[in-house]
Design brief:
The chain is an alpha/beta fold. About 25% of the residues lie in helices and about 25% in strands.
């Protein structure tokens, strides 16, 4: 399986996402924001970072990059797309996901290991989890507060499109403690925490077993691979 990772000006975690793809057993394909070619990939990752310096609104300029025409078209046709942090902001700005992301409630950048509850294990990127499973994924953002209208929130909750929820103190003021959502089809997922930073022992979050041993993030990438194999 070939999974494309798009690099935008200001992307920081594109190489980390490529490594996560490789560790999961797929072939990472580096894609450039200025191209109109997905190079035949089977899935896409929009990585974290500060695309275009976070000018205007986080993800707003990146959502209009040339390659996003192809990303939007592929997503609407069912291709799995994962937006991580800045990538989540891009998906919201491109209207592939509902709601939006605003400045953290505390008004400052947050960086911590964050506990999450898996609310949906039915998406292309979460099928390897159990619903209700608690995982730990690094979080680092300055504009991670998820917002949506009351009507949209009710629909997201009622139709099972809330994929992850923060456990413990709400780190950024997100409504309903929402850390990640999906589209109705379940092929597009966006979340603020960074699963690509929890894929390899020795480099992930601390666990009860050992320091930096957390690898909960790897399941995102193995999930999409296994889902593709089942559908093949």
């Amino acid at each position: 399986m070939r999974i494309g990772v798009v690099t935008f000006p200001g992307s920081l975690d594109d190489r980390d996402a490529q490594r996560a793809v490789r560790l999961a057993g797929a072939e990472p394909v580096a894609l450039w924001h200025g191209d109109h070619d997905l190079h035949g990939v089977d899935a896409l990752v929009l990585p974290g970072g500060f695309s275009y310096g976070d000018y205007l609104r986080c993800g707003a300029i990146a959502s209009l990059s040339p390659i996003m025409t192809e990303v939007i078209d592929a997503a609407k046709k069912g291709m799995p797309v994962l937006g991580i942090c800045n990538g989540f902001q891009m998906l919201a700005e491109a209207r592939l996901l509902d709601g939006g992301l605003i400045r953290n409630e505390a008004g400052r950048f947050i960086c911590k290991d964050q506990q999450l509850r898996v609310e949906s294990a039915s998406t292309d990127w979460t099928s390897g989890f159990e619903q209700g499973q608690e995982i730990t994924i690094p979080l680092k953002n300055g504009e991670g507060g998820f917002i949506a209208s009351a009507e949209t929130l009710e629909r997201l909750e009622g139709e099972g499109q809330v994929v992850f929820r923060y456990l413990g103190p709400n780190p950024n003021g997100s409504l309903n403690e929402i850390a990640g959502i999906s589209n109705a089809r379940g092929n597009v997922v966006g979340l603020m925490p960074h699963p690509e930073h929890a894929v390899e022992p020795g480099f992930g979050p601390d666990t009860a077993t050992a320091m930096r041993s957390g690898t909960d993030g790897l399941t995102f990438f193995t999930s999409v691979i296994e889902r593709a194999l089942v559908g093949a």
